TrEMBL record:
Residue span(s) of domain Cytochrome oxidase subunit II copper A binding: 66-168
Full protein name: Cytochrome C oxidase subunit II
Localization annotation: Cell envelope
Family annotation (CDD domains): CuRO_HCO_II_like (cd13842)
Cited Pfam families: COX2
Gene3D superfamilies in UniProt: Cupredoxins - blue copper proteins
Amino acid sequence: MHIDQLEKKWAGISLGIAGLFVVLILGSALFHGIHAPSNVETIDSARLHLSEEFAEDKLGAKINADSSVTVRMVAGRYGFYPKTLTLPAETPITFRWVSLDVIHGVHMPMTNMSTMIVPGYVAEIHTELHHTGEYPMLCNEYCGMGHAHMWSKVNIVSKAQWQDMNKQGEANHG
């Protein structure tokens, strides 16, 4: 069987490009600390309302001792709960999500926030939001007929405004 020199050349170029992409992806993951989730936390989705962490009165934002904020949310047909959040800018924020029913996705446009929320597991994202304003939080994983109506709103305010709201008891935290 004869393979033309030109075909060998283009096959080599194609394999070289594919190899280059693999090296770039692996190198980027290594140098930027990108890795698969390793701290897999499970939870009983049928008993969320009885759990300490995701009970209804514990949802929302909570200020931690180190001034970071932890946000606990529940995704269920067809909404994210709580529906509206106010959070501080320039502050480390940890979002923790669970699902009541089916697979959901969460995406906040113009930020680095995007993850899947799988029933039986806790999804966690660490971020810091730098720009004040109103951000939608959308479900990006089809979850049923009401999927298009599944959203929440996040208001990012300055640190000073956040502190004033906390002093007056206006901030929504659990």
